[in-house]
# Entry
Amino acid sequence: MSWIRSIFKRVLPEDKEVGCGYGPFKLPANHPFTRGCSIHDFEFGETHEGRGDKGIQQVDWELFYRWVLIAKAEQSYAGKCALAREICRYWPLAHRVGPLLWDGKDE
# Structure
């Protein structure tokens, strides 16, 4: 995986903007999931600086859990369902692309 990670990181510039996604593939800043992604981005940044103490699986699990909590906190049932559908849409993508950008320990 390290050679794929190396190629991927050379093709895409570093994205230091907090948000859900990477570069042009980012959810709007006002999207409800953005709150949950700020911690995820911080943990990615920590690994880039060599200070991260979690593995990618733990960091990704915590992102998923935060998204579920955000969906659960939505006021309306329709809003909860809409966010649950978005988790199903975005989670597989985030979970597959994230390891290509991860500099921390693998579990």
